[in-house]
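Bug report (template v2)

What were you trying to do?
Predict the complex of my protein with zinc ion.

What happened?
Run completed; filing so the output is reviewed.

Input:
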Amino acid sequence: MPKPSALVCVRCGSRYPVERFADDCPACREKDAPANLTVAYDSIPGAGRAKDQPIRPLDSMWRWDSFLPAASGAAVTMGEGNTPLISAPTLGLGDVWIKDESRNPTWSFKDRLASGAITMARQFGAKVVASSSSGNAGASAAAYAAKAGLPCIIFTFAGASAALVAQMRAYGAMVITVEDKADRWRLQSAGVREFGWYPTSPFFGPVVGSNPYGMEGYKTIAYEIAEAFDWNPPEWFVLPVCYGDALYGAWKGFEELKALGWIDRVPRLVAAEVSGSIAAAMQSGEAMPPEIPRNAPSIATSIGASQGTVQAVEALRRSGGTAVTVTDDELSRWVVTLGAREGMWPEPSSAAPFAAIQRLRASGTIAANDRVVALVTAAGLKDASVIDSALPPSPVVRGGLTEVIKALHEVYGFAHG
Ligand SMILES: Cc1ncc(COP(=O)(O)O)c(C=O)c1O
Ligand SMILES: [Zn+2]
């Protein structure tokens, strides 16, 4: 197992001592580009293991523990990871594969983050887990804290998705609702400093990203994809992005495999976003993405923040990737298309990669023969509202089969026989 030896700035490479969790890089904050820290190790992650040596068939992402900050035996795990990679030939997007993270224990990719962060919370002797999240990160933190036997406090705000708040409560978390969204960080931050609550989510602004140990969990997405492609990774990997935790984590994972010589190329990464903040930084060359407020909230609430992060921009630049801003109309269309054609129901945010791929194929940025993986980050049941707004109401039929056939035709355009 490699041991964490430092926390390193994702932008300027400054090294800081290992801590239970991270603030941002003081050097970059001074330059108005606050940046997250990432875990560095005392030995090369994965070293000593040959690529063709079978990775132990443990039923979770911890089978990659030679790349992670804790041993599988010490992990707080519920079988996260090892999600399927499914070919999606019906979408008209060429050679596209779906990495389906909705199969995780709480039905989102955040379980990799929560498993990584809460494993380390336990190792550091934390007594309480705290998260500011109205969504999947909170649901995951709640579940993994329960599994670890730690109390969990989640700050959310009035108007958060009812399904997700119910999920947090079902896992026994103590949910606190604040009226002003900004209060969540103020309160969590105070709890972290005064009481030693262990933060798994961002807890101050401008956001730099999440807990670095949690982000290590996202590296396993890259290992699984590379392994599934027999160590000849796809040309492109497209993710729905908000703060870029998964984007940066996956990039780091691919880089580690390249350093070991297991793969000879890192896929080009694409951030599918709704604010346009990361795209603006990619264009301007600035380190810090600008805030781009919207007139109305996006239907993709999970990725609805108005400002991206330095770590997202770093991962895109270093992988030769790009950012694509997608619209609500595209998201809604792709939610319906994925369900009807591939039998896959994504959360609205998880439809973003498909809209991005469509645009990049059309512009020729993604070449006709390039293989592409899209990350479906969470399940549609988390936010079912799009289905009601995008599809006609199902008809109420009185009478017999004649009326059924009529309704099938009128509402669904179905021609019988
Ligand atoms: C379903 C879903 N997709 C994507 C994201 C974006 O994640 P990240 O912050 O890693 O970019 C989130 C969370 O914030 C999410 O809940
Ligand atoms: Zn820095």
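What did the reviewer find?
The mean pLDDT is 96. The first helix runs from residue 26 to 30.
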